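Shipment paperwork, digital attachment
Item: protein structure file
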Amino acid sequence: MSLQTEIVKVESKFGTTAYNSWMRQDSDNLLVMLPGWGYTCENPLLFYLRSAALQQGFDVLSVQYGFQTNHAELTPETMTFVQEDVKAATDPVLAHGYKQVCIAGKSLGTPLAVELGHNINNANVSLLLLTPMGGAVMVSETLQTLAVVGTADGLYSAEWVESFANHPTVSWRVFEGLNHSLGVKDDWRASLAILPEIISACETFLIS
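Attachment content:
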């Protein structure tokens, strides 16, 4: 079946319509991408992750939050609106009946990915957590998880990563010198050069 794109519209409580792109090729496998605060699904990591997943035969849902569409302020009080946006975007797609679902979250999207993953009961679920925030990895422990971080990221903790050594479901890929965008500050050449290694690690996890 050829690749088709369907737009899943969500009327967000942020006062706007969010447009979620569902790329379909009659697959039993789905990648859901939950972006970061200012890091959308069109930024390099998620753009090329989507390309890799499609080439591996996955369908891909690229989620957009209402506050991004409306350029609204995000506060602790409005985080529930983001959670509702994610649920409204993913419910009709998950109803398709996928057998394997991988949820990739970037930063802000990582706790949302964990929450979504624990609410899917009829599929084999895994998590790909890019620059995870807070305790996202800690609460993902019952799901097969790959967490990716750079040592120049303010969220990086060597002790935290080491605490997962030999963990049965959680593994880490730590990249030396990469920041919160998983790039090298003020060096676009180095940032581009490391991108294939990051995407390859994610692709390997997807198909494992």
